[in-house]
């Protein structure tokens, strides 16, 4: 059994003089990462490995949750995951060594959203319906797969175990919208 955790980067600044690739997390993005990290920790979903886009905002998302990752968790940053399409993300996942039991992938929309939707074919209708129209910043979807090898990983074979957003974990009084970057 394998677990795949797909996480969209957290809330970012609107613009950066260095361009899109250099955009940084907004203050709320840092706190949202802590909420997601605590959630994963509470569900005993500690990744063995992290694959992440090499954009500043995804690097900072990983950095923000790193204190909640197990010691020795290997992290690989790749430009191939920057604004990647679902098939490109799948190609990266298929290169993960078979001894990795739980993989966290941190990336961008629309690729992460489309991949999460395609992997969730065995999800409850309400969960699948929610993912179909909503994968905001820091959204995190956890899938389980009955495969022994990441190279054989394919859409439609996963079961959605958890879907959480930072907004769903924040106290209701904040009222922050988390649909944007």
Please provide a written account of the structure.
Helix 1 (27-42) packs across helix 2 and helix 3 (86-93) crosses helix 4. The longest helix has 16 residues, at 27-42. This protein has 181 residues and is of the alpha/beta class. The mean pLDDT is 89. The protein contains 6 helices and 6 strands.
Query: What is the global morphology?
Result: globular
Structural class by helix and strand composition: alpha/beta
CATH superfamily: Phosphoglycerate mutase-like
Strand portion, in percent?
15-25%
| Low-confidence segments | none
**Approximately how much helix is present in the residues?**
25-40%
Strand order of the largest sheet: 3-2-4-1-5-6
Q: Which fold name fills CATH's third level, the topology? A: Rossmann fold
| Average of pLDDT | 89
Q: Could you give the distance between the termini?
A: 33 Å
CATH architecture: 3-Layer(aba) Sandwich
Biggest β-sheet strands, sense, barrel? 6 strands, mixed
Structural domain tally: 1
């Amino acid at each position: 059994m394998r677990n795949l955790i797909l996480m969209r980067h957290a809330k970012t600044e609107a613009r950066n003089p260095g361009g899109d690739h250099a955009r940084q997390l907004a203050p709320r993005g840092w706190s949202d990462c802590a909420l997601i990290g605590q959630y994963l920790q509470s569900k005993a979903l500690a990744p063995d490995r992290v694959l992440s886009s090499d954009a500043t905002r995804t690097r900072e998302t990983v950095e923000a949750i790193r204190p909640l990752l197990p010691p020795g968790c290997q992290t690989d940053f790749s430009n191939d995951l920057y604004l990647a399409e679902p098939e490109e993300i799948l190609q990266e996942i298929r290169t993960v060594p078979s001894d990795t039991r739980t993989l966290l992938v941190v990336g961008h929309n629309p690729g992460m959203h489309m991949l999460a939707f395609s992997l969730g074919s065995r999800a409850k209708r309400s969960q699948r319906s929610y993912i179909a129209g909503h994968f905001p910043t820091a959204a995190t979807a956890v899938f389980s797969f009955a495969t022994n090898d990441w190279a054989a990983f394919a859409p439609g074979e996963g079961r959605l175990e958890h879907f959480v957003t930072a907004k769903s974990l924040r106290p209701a009084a904040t009222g922050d919208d988390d649909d944007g970057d």
